[in-house]
Amino acid sequence: MLADNHGKKLSYMRLAVTDRCNLRCFYCMPEEGLDWLSRAELLTYEEMLRMCRLMVQMGIEKIRITGGEPFVRKDMMQLLSAIAEIDGLKDLSITTNGVLTASYITQLKAIGIKSVNLSLDTLDAGRFFAITRRDEFAAVMHTLEELLKHDFEVKINAVVMEGKNTQDILPMVALTKNLPVSVRFIEEMPFNGESHSYTGVQWDYVRILDEIKSHYPTIKKLVDDAYSTSYNYQIAGYTGTIGLIAAYSRTFCGTCNRIRVTPQGSLKNCLYDDGVLNIKDLMRSGATDQHIKNELLKAFNQRPLNGWEAERLRNKQVGVHESMATIGG
């Protein structure tokens, strides 16, 4: 078993394959976008595949592909197909905004991907445009329909934001009445590329749950999986489930089993840290597989206890306002 210095199992890696995105969600980046990474700064597909193989050899069992938006990177299915064939990998999944995803659904199914997280903050086309600054609501809803038609496990991730989409909480809960989806409400975080000020979470998971309970008093707590980042619930008689992710409150840190790798190859032991090891630089310096594994083990053995400690240890000049697109959603 791969573990950190606190004895916590490490079995899940989130790999961001690009910082680019075809939406401009205000809570993630400025309207004009970011200073995109050049191709030379990104991990190549060959480097990603080598890293994934090494991670699985060390004990990583699940890999989730994120971005930016994964499908804006060319030949994404080629990489996904190669990762899916890694011996020992038990679970390959993907997080997407759904704009381009529908055309890949049969291919995703064919290589064994069963679970897709769909980022969708509202069920209203007007609010979707206001949040994302793009007119792509119909494309995302089409992707949702196709995912369900092909029997994917679908989790809808919605960031709850004061003055933007709190009126969508109850309509999104209503989706779970007849659809086999998990609607997961996420606390807003400060990773916005400095496109707007951040003064702390206004809708934490407790407030979101209270809002749901006030309209659905039959909601019941479910038993959460061992490494779940969400507190999970279900309304009596409903098909789907509801999740609450305390991303800012960070109440799930005690059971966190995940690491992140950014598009430029920076290993993050925690969403809130600066990055603790540049895997890309190691590979390009000619490091052997064993040397890379040794360096990874050193990094895992310096993991902060929780997200609050990770934030305290950050470079204060950098702060925590980088974009989620550069971190990996």
UniProtKB/TrEMBL annotation:
InterPro entries found in the cross-reference section: Aldolase_TIM, Elp3/MiaA/NifB-like_rSAM, MoaA, MoaA-like, MoaA_NifB_PqqE_Fe-S-bd_CS, MoaA_twitch, MoCo_biosynth_MoaA/MoaC, rSAM
Superkingdom of source: Bacteria
Molecular function in Gene Ontology: GTP 3',8'-cyclase activity
Keywords noted in UniProt: 4Fe-4S, GTP-binding, Iron, Iron-sulfur, Lyase, Metal-binding, Molybdenum cofactor biosynthesis, Nucleotide-binding, S-adenosyl-L-methionine
Key word Nucleotide-binding present: yes
Keyword Amino-acid biosynthesis tagged: no
A Pfam entry, by short name: Radical_SAM
Ranges where the Radical SAM core domain occurs: 5-218
EC code: 4.1.99.22
UniProt cofactor(s): [4Fe-4S] cluster
Catalytic activity, reaction form: GTP + AH2 + S-adenosyl-L-methionine = (8S)-3',8-cyclo-7,8-dihydroguanosine 5'-triphosphate + 5'-deoxyadenosine + L-methionine + A + H(+)
PANTHER family from the UniProt entry: MOLYBDENUM COFACTOR BIOSYNTHESIS PROTEIN 1, MOLYBDOPTERIN COFACTOR SYNTHESIS PROTEIN A
Protein name listed in UniProt: GTP 3',8-cyclase
Organism in which the protein naturally occurs: Mucilaginibacter ximonensis
